[in-house]
Amino acid sequence: MPLETVLALAVLALVIDALTGEPAWLYRRVPHPVVLLGRGITGLEGWLWRPDQPPAQRRRRGVLLVVAALLPALLLGAALGLVATAGPLGLVVTALACSTLVAQRSLVDHVRDVAKGLAQGLDAGRAAVARIVGRDPNQLDPSGVARAAIESAAENEADGVIAPLFWLLLLGPLGLLAYKTVNTLDSMVGYRSERYLHFGWASARLDDLINHLPARLTGLGLLLVAGRPALWLKVRQEAPKHRSPNAGWPEAAMALLLDVKLAGPRLYASGRVDDDWIGTGSKDAGPADIERAIALLWRLWFGLVGLLALIWCGIVIWPSSTPA
């Protein structure tokens, strides 16, 4: 696919997502693409997973799950790539499809709901944050609710916006659909539970691999749009404190920029996690910090759209306007 087509596709997808998000009227009538993907994965899991399988066989079947889920995604992605190059209408249709796999607007809306909820009271804040994090909201004080929302903003900016964009730019719609498939696999089976420890191993490891660069680029991008690139060395010190090889990078950047501490000990349905704190801030996080985090996400979005549009202009418009 020509570079100018990929750039136009990326800009259009980002703008469409920012303007429309996930329209409730639409997804009341038709399933969201990720919902359809999840149903397919559930069907494959039911076919491949058996309770009496030894660990080695579960790993092999987990690899087969990844392959079986990726094949239709790759075929659909390749088809969308052909549509995108079939003219302006094909480009717009493909951009509409790709925009459903980018989550900037949805992420911002859900995170802002937490700030609004906290402004109304702790119970409302807990109810809002329970929709975006897996930890037990009843154990969170107001600062804990705010921290959870900020962590979700940082981590999901990486795997819901920057990583999809990265793979779209690198491999076109095929890369975007492949990424989203692996990311959804990880969210469904990439757990260290008895059921998924071996069966979900391939999904979890592949997700770690394909998010390696995007997670670090997200952290760096946040620092750049905040005008504080010198914090990168500090991010490199703080990020490895996170148990995830990737989530620590955007979270460390966000913690340092907001002067708060993130991660730390927290309670999930599966049990307590005693992680180190990320960041060096001494203040308690609150609704204002959630809004500052959202502002950083939008600054990163505008920076990316502007940069991609500028590169597109440099390829398409300026050469044709330069006198021979």
Number of domains: 1
Q: Main β-sheet: number of strands, strand sense, barrel status?
A: 2 strands, antiparallel
For the terminal residues, how far apart are their CA atoms?
27 Å
SSE order: HHHHHHHHHHHHHEEEEH
Instruction: Flag low-confidence runs.
Output: none
Strand order in the largest sheet: 1-4
The number of helices is 14
- Average pLDDT number: 94
Number of β-strand runs: 4
Q: C-alpha Rg, in Å? A: 20 Å
Structural class label? mainly alpha
Shape: globular
Summarize the helices and strands and which ones pair or pack.
Blueprint: H1 3-20, H2 24-27, H3 33-48, H4 55-84, H5 88-99, H6 104-120, H7 122-129, H8 142-171, H9 173-189, H10 201-210, H11 212-225, H12 232-238, H13 248-258, E1 262-263, E2 266-268, E3 271-273, E4 277-278, H14 287-321
Antiparallel strand pairs: 1-4, 2-3
Overview of this protein structure:
The protein is mainly α and 324 residues long. The chain has one domain (3-321). The protein is built from 14 helices and four strands. The strands form two sheets. A two-stranded antiparallel sheet has the order 1-4. Strands 2-3 form a two-stranded antiparallel sheet. A hairpin with a 2-residue loop joins strand 2 (266-268) and strand 3 (271-273). The model has no long low-confidence stretch (mean pLDDT 94).
In brief:
With 324 residues, the protein is mostly helical.
What attributes characterize this protein structure?
two-stranded antiparallel ribbon, 4 strands, 14 helices, globular, mainly alpha
